[in-house]
Design a protein that fits this description.
The protein has a single domain (about 40-205), classed as HUPs (Rossmann fold, 3-Layer(aba) Sandwich). About 50% of the residues lie in helices and about 15% in strands. The chain contains six helices and eight strands. The strands form two sheets. Strands 1-8-7-2-5-6 form a six-stranded parallel beta sheet. Helix 1 (about 1-40) crosses helix 6.
Length: about 230
């Protein structure tokens, strides 16, 4: 009897291991799929040179910390550098600086505005989006709050790809201008987070019916009037 029970237990373990293995492969395949779809969505509409990129009225810069502790955050610096290149080349007319402002002493849009104006971008050509809590919110709010359906995203390639996937799902004609990337030694944690962010991106667009956490009244971009 004990031998029969031992045999049944071993069969149970094998079946359990087989099911667990199948579920793992399905989950792994889903992660791989969701990490590939934004690459294909952005194919042919990401640019590294101001000579090649088409003119777009609005540039959207995604926020991030300007510093990590006392160390400068290169993701931030390179995004500002890329935006200034577009401005100096006459490829954009104004900017939305979109980021987090949930804490009294933390204001990504204001820091981006100061960084841009210090490099010659006129203050009146910059509009702050204080509720860009994550990429999804920044993209959708560009359309629903700032009224633009044609713009250029300014960030590192990985975020531009994800943003373009979200934009296409929301009826936004977007292209991307790639800021310089950060060496792996300084950006590996960000790249690991990106794997999970792309899974959530796909779920937001295709399964969860996600909306921005904060919406609100229409905000005019430079040179336009909003009729309420």
């Amino acid at each position: 009897m004990s031998g029969r029970r031992s045999s049944q237990f071993r069969r149970f373990l094998r079946r359990t291991a087989l099911i667990a293995g199948i579920l793992f492969l399905i989950a792994l395949g889903f992660v791989v799929f969701t990490n590939l779809v934004p690459i294909y969505a952005a194919e042919g509409i990401l640019f590294n040179s101001t000579d090649e990129i088409p003119i777009r009225r609005v540039g959207l810069i995604f926020g991030t910390d300007s510093h990590i502790g006392v160390r400068e955050n290169l993701y931030f610096r390179y995004r500002i550098d890329a935006a200034v290149k577009l401005w100096n080349a006459g490829k954009v007319d104004c900017f939305i600086v979109s980021g987090d402002n949930r804490k009294r002493d933390y204001n990504e849009p204001a820091v981006m505005r100061v960084a841009l104006t210090s490099q010659g971008v006129p203050r009146e050509r910059i509009v702050e989006d204080y509720a860009g809590l994550r990429t999804f919110d920044s993209v959708v709010r560009a359309k629903e709050i700032f009224g633009t359906t044609e713009l250029v995203f300014i960030s590192q390639r990985f975020q531009n790809e994800r943003a373009i996937y979200i934009a296409k799902a929301n009826g936004i004609d977007a292209i991307g201008f790639n800021a310089q990337d950060v060496p792996v030694s300084g950006g590996y944690k960000t790249k690991l987070r990106e794997v999970a962010a792309r899974v959530l991106m796909w779920l937001d667009v295709n399964a969860l019916g996600t909306r921005p956490k904060v919406l609100g009244d229409r905000v005019a971009l430079p040179g336009e009037a909003v009729h309420r």
